[in-house]
Amino acid sequence: MDLGIRGKRALVCAASRGLGFGCAEALAGEGVDLVINARGREALEVAAEDLAARFGVSVQAVAGDITTEDGRGAVLEALGGAADILVTNAGGPPPGVWTDWGREDFIAAMEANMLAPIALIQALVPGMMQRGWGRVVNITSMAVKAPIPVLGLSNTARTGLTGFVAGTARQVAGQGVTINNLLPGIHDTARAAALDAGAAAAEGITPAEARAAREATIPAGRYGTVQEFGAMCAFLCSDRAGFIVGQNILLDGGQVNATL
Q1: Contact 201, 161 (CB under 8 A)
Q2: I need a labelling partner for 16 at 20 to 30 A (CA). Which of 33, 66, 228, 249 fits?
Q3: Is it the case that residue 1 has pLDDT exceeding 90?
Q4: Max Cα distance, the chain (Å)
Q5: How large a percentage of the chain has pLDDT more than 90?
Q6: pTM over 0.85, yes/no
Q7: Distance CA 21, CA 18 (A)
Q8: CB–CB of 229/23 below 8 Å?
Q9: Residue 225 DSSP SS3
Q10: How much is the average pLDDT of 69-92?
C-alpha cells in the first residue's frame, strides 16, 4: 500500500533505538525525510547514517534532551519551524511505588511525558493547519488504558497528555491535521530489558525467567517488535488515516483485557 507521504518531512523523537527508531525506519521506508532526535549523539548519528543509506532519504540528526527548552529549540531550528509529521516520544520515568515519589518526581515525569509533547504540538501544529495537512502521533503507553502500579509516574503524566490530545485533536481535524496516540505494551526494547532485569533482581530469578513470566501474561505469547510498532505509526502518519482523530490505539498483544 502506498501511504501517500513520500517527500513529507517528519520529526521523530527518541529515535536512536527502540520504538522511536522503529517509527523513523518505517517512515523512511515510505520516502519521508527525517529530523531525528535523541540524547546520545553517537547512537543517533549511527541511526541517521543507517536510515539514509538504506532508504535514500534525508536524515538529520539533532542530539539533545527533547524534554528541555534547549533541546526542543535545537530540533525546531533544524526543521526551520515546520514539519508535516511529528512523532513524540521520551523515555519513561523510573518504576517504584507511590510512597517513593515526591513533588519533584511528578514534575520531572510531566515535563518529559506530558509537557514536552504538548510544547512540540503547539510549535508545529499551527503550521500544519495553515498548510492544510499534518499528522501527530504520540507514543504513550498501555498504562493509559490499564494503569501499571509500579509505573505510577508514567500513568500520571501520560494520562495528562491523553486528556490534552482528546480535546485538541478535535479542534484541528477540520484543517487536515490529525493527532492520535499509540499505546505500546511490552516490546522487545532496552526499556523492556531493564524492567525485566529489575523484576529479576526483586524476585531472585534470572532476567530470562522474568521475561518468560511476563510473556505468559500476553495473549500473543511474546513481546512486540519495533517493526510492528513502526508500521502502525507510519499508517497513522499516512494520507490514508485522515479520518482517525483523537484515538488511543493499543499495540499490546492483547494484554489489556477490555471490551472497549
Answers
A1: no
A2: 249
A3: no
A4: 56
A5: 91
A6: yes
A7: 5
A8: yes
A9: coil
A10: 95
Which residue shows C-alpha cell 482528546?
166
* pLDDT tens track for 201-256: 999 999 999 999 999 999 999 999 999 999 999 999 999 999 999 999 999 999 99
- Evaluate whether 89 touches 134 at the Cβ level (below 8 Å): no
CA-CA-CA-CA torsion for 224, 234, 112, 11, nearest 10 degrees? 140
**What cell numbers appear for 112 in the block?**
518529559
What is residue 238's predicted lDDT score, i.e. its pLDDT?
98
Name the one residue in this structure whose C-alpha cell is 503507553: 141
How far apart CA 111 and CA 107 sit, in angstroms, is 6
Query: d(Cα 13, Cα 91) in Å, to the nearest integer?
Result: 10
Residue for grid cell 488511543? 248
Determine how many CB atoms are found less than 10 A away from the CB of residue 42: 10
Summary mean pLDDT of the chain: 96
Amino acid at 171: Q
